[in-house]
Design a protein that fits this description.
Elements: E1 4-10, H1 19-32, E2 35-41, H2 47-57, E3 62-67, H3 69-79, E4 87-92, H4 98-102, H5 109-117, E5 121-129, E6 132-134, E7 137-143, H6 146-149, H7 157-166, E8 174-175, E9 177-183, E10 186-198, E11 220-226, H8 230-241, E12 251-256, E13 258-263, E14 268-271, E15 274-278, E16 281-293, H9 296-304
Parallel strand pairs: 1-2, 1-3, 3-4
Antiparallel strand pairs: 5-6, 5-16, 7-8, 7-10, 7-14, 9-10, 9-13, 10-11, 11-12, 13-16, 14-15
The protein binds adenosine-5'-triphosphate.
Organism: Ornithinibacillus halophilus
Keywords: ATP-binding, Kinase, Lipid biosynthesis, Lipid metabolism, Magnesium, Metal-binding, Nucleotide-binding, Phospholipid biosynthesis, Phospholipid metabolism, Transferase
Protein name: Diacylglycerol kinase
Amino acid sequence: MNVKRARIIYNPTSGREAFRKELPRVLERFEQAGYETSAHATTGEGDAIEAAKTAVERRYDVVVAAGGDGTINEVINGLAEQDYRPKLGIIPMGTTNDFARALSIPRDIDKAVDIILKDQSLLLDIGKVNDHYFMNIAGGGKLTELTYDVPSKLKTMIGQLAYYMKGIEMLPSLKPAHARIEYDGQVIDEDIMLFLVSNSNSVGGFEKLAPDASLTDGYFDLIILRKTNLAEFIRIASLALRGAHLEDDQVIYVKAKKITVIPDEKMQLNIDGEYGGLLPGEFENLKQHIEFFVPESHLKKEDAE
Ligand SMILES: Nc1ncnc2c1ncn2[C@@H]1O[C@H](COP(=O)(O)OP(=O)(O)OP(=O)(O)O)[C@@H](O)[C@H]1O
C-alpha cells in the first residue's frame, strides 16, 4: 500500500499560541486518514523556509502550514523554487490570516483539518518580486522612516493605510514620489503615493481592495494611487474601505502579469505585510504554481468565475 506522508510546519508562537496543545489530536486525525505524519515547530524568523525545503528533500506528499500569514509566506518561499512541490494545507493560527480568509478556510483547527483530509485541491498563482515570493500582496510607497520603526508590526501595505487612518496626524508621512511603472508593455511615468500588487482579494481586512482579484488567472491586480493632497488621500482611503476606490480618477487599476517599478528616489517595498527591502522591483505572477487544499465552497467559487 502506498502510504501518504504529511509534514506539519507550525509556529508555536503564532496568534494565541494554541497549536502545540492541539498537535497530538491533529497528528492522530492525519494518521487515521492514512497519512504518516510528523511535525516541526519553527524556531524563529526564516525557519519555516528551511523546514519547507527539508520537506521537499524528504519528498513529503503534503506540507501543512499552521500559523499566520507570516508562516504561510515563509513556507511558500521554501517551496516556490523547487521542482517538486508538495501540496500545501493551511491551518490558520495567526493574528492575521488574510490568505486563509481569501480561500475561505475557517479559523477552527478541526474544520481546517477536515478541508485538508477531504483532499480537494487547486493550483493557485503565487507572486514573485526580485527573489521573494508572496501570496497576498506586495507594494510600496515613499514613507518617511516612521513605518518600520513603529514597534507593532504592520501587517500589510493596506494595514499601513489603516494605521495612518487611525492616526490622522501620521498621514503626511506618505509622500508622493516619481516612479516609472511598466506593466505588460504599458508605461506609467508619474508621481504616485503608493502602488499595490495584489494576488489575492483579502488583504489587511480590506476585503474590497481588489474585489476582482483571482488566484488562478495568472494576473495581478495593480492598483496605483496618483499624487494627491491630504484631503484627497483621506477621501480615497475611505472609499477603499467600501470598495468604491477603483473608479476614482486618482486611482489607476489594471490587471497585469509582469510589472516593473523603478522609483527615482528611495522607496520601500512591502511583501505580504513585512519589510521587503528597497525598490526597484520586478514582479512576476507565477500562474497556478502551488497546489493548495481548499474547501468545496472555494472550488465552486473558482468554477463560477
Ligand atoms: N519560535 C518562534 N519564536 C519567535 N518567532 C517565530 C518563531 N517561529 C516563527 N517565528 C516568526 O513569527 C512570524 C509571524 O508568524 P505568524 O504569521 O505565523 O504569526 P502571527 O501571530 O500572525 O504573527 P505575529 O505574532 O507576528 O503577529 C514568522 O514570520 C516567523 O518569522
